[in-house]
Amino acid sequence: MERRNRNPLWRFPGVAPGAAFFFAYLYLPIFVLIAFSFNENRQATIWTGFSLDWYGVVLRNDDILSAAGNSLIVATTATLIATSVALLAALAMARRRFRGQDGVSAVIAFPLIIPEIVTAVATLLFFVAVGIQLGLTTVIIAHTVFCIPFAYLPIRARFDGMDAALPEAAADLYANEVQAFRRITLPLLWPGILSGAMLSFIISLDTFTITYFVAGPGATTLPVYIFGMIRIGITPEVNAISALMLVISIVFVTLSYLIGRVRR
Amino acid sequence: MAPSRQARSTPSPISPFTSLANLLRRSQRARLILLIAPALLIIGVFMLLPLGLMAYVSILERGINGGVQWGVHTVDAYVAFLFEEDLLGNLAINPDYLQIFGRSFLLSFVTTAACLAIGFPAAFYMALQPEKYRNLLIFLVTIPFWTNLLIRNYAWILLLRSNGLVNESLMGLGLIDAPITLLYTNFAITLGLVYSFLPFMVLPIYASLEKLDLRLVEAAFDLGANKRRAFQRVIVPLALPGIAAGCILVFVPSLGAFITPELLGGSRSMMIGNLIQSQFGAARNWPLGAALAFALLAIVLLAMMVYLMRFRRPPGTG
Question: Which of A106, A223, B72, B219 sits in a 20 to 30 Å window from A201, CA-based?
Answer without folding.
Answer: A106
